[in-house]
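so my prof wants the structure for this chain in the tokens format not the other one, which i didnt know existed until like an hour ago. anyway here's the sequence
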Amino acid sequence: MTPSTADTTHTPQTGANDPDTADRNTTENDVQATANAAASGALGTADVIIIGSGPGGYATALRAAELGRSVVLVERGDALGGTCLNRGCIPTKALITTARAVDAVRQAPNVGIDATITGIDFGTMVTYKNRIVQTMTEGLRGLLAHRGVVVLQGEATVTDPARRVVTIQANGGHDQVLCFRKAGVSESCGTTVSVQADDIVLAMGSRPTPLPCHDFAGALIDSTQALSLVHVPATATIIGSGSIAVEFATIWSAGGCEVTMLMRHGRALSHWDRRSGTTLTRELKRRGIHIIPDTRITGVDVGVNLGATVHYTDAAGQERTIFSELALTAIGRVPNTDDAWCRALGVDMDDDGHIVTDAYGRTKASGIWAVGDITRGPGLASRAFAQGITIAERMAGHDCTPVDDDAVAQVVFSSPEAATVGCTMEQARDREDLDHVRESMYPMLSNARMLMSGSAGSMSIVSGERREQPGVEVVLGVHIVAPNASDMIGEAEQIIANRIPLDRASSLTHPHPTFSEAFGEALLLADGRPLHTR
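here's what i got, hopefully its the right format
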């Protein structure tokens, strides 16, 4: 994250015999020794070595360093931050910010403002996106340096799992492994560096999943390639219905692209709450996005500068084709665990290649931990942050709380946004540890800010009793489609995670008039005390 004055805490001066000072000096000496060993190409030592600098990797590094451990963070690429900062969360939201500016101008006549769009300079939009990404990645590099984390740039391999030795080799066009002790200041370390650590944390992330019938090639692109475009395509076919598919449909459609989405199921976000998915699908259509549900992709024809022809069967089983300038495959992501060295670690993996861990991130192999997209569960930066903190604290011997996936919120930054946390009605009914499950649906257009926005939306609350707490009704799930859903879902996340009784949660007040007020009204409705609804 971008460092600020808030990142630097004032440390009062203490005596030479103060134990905190001694620990801090020891850690600084360890970090310096590791960096010196790396710079000389010798075998270095560290308390923790982390492979991968995405959200899970760098969160582990930052927290472990806070706890006084010497930390080495290895990144194969030129930029820190993994997919999230460079090819995912941050660049897509930067482009969505520009798309919303376009939408605001188009909606201006509805409120009496005579405004038109005379042109969209996509090159300037890309420059804006790149500037945001650069600011964030440079800020992360500075924060890691401030915490004393040694960053090595190169390709990491665990060469001796029993002794926890990681070997780093030069890659990516560099003939030397680069060592960063200060932000932006590199030292050459030779072509190969080895580091022995007490603990190894695997944080290699994931990559886009290709179609079974056709790998990425030519005009059939993945999300990383989509973010590298220097123009908005005139026509685009998006294969998928999840968050990546919906967000790119939102971006390209705002830029004037004729977008068609081929969905495997009948609605967007098919694994989410049905009402949310149906509402968002309707809103995507209202914005001019063509949606074809219940399709099966049978083939793709691509060629140099020839666009993409996607072959599919429709809901009736009829063979169809659609041609467009580009076809984006957005059907999920696959963990980066297929390297031979990873398979030889002695850790367990599931059928999809995710590394199996306990609740605290420990694998079956002693001293080896795993975090982020290479573990099963929601592939979200927020979850990886929490996992990284948990791993760092557990490695340091702290008694900490593991991540509760039921309380990890998911957000899609479409127009309007969609957000969800906890169980859907169907999921809650299928669980044996829950009783008296019910669903309350709040009419979003009874909220004044929703009316002002001109957007449709939906909100539902799933509540019930946990068998371990009979007689106490709690919120089990919250599902929102609204312009500011991403900001509203955090409150729901806290209520679910802390198991706050519904009658207490519904008694909280919300500022008026706000979008968040809708959630307060929905809680009252769920508690049988509706105010502005029937």
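also thought this was worth mentioning. The CA atoms of residues 52 and 204 lie 5 Å apart.
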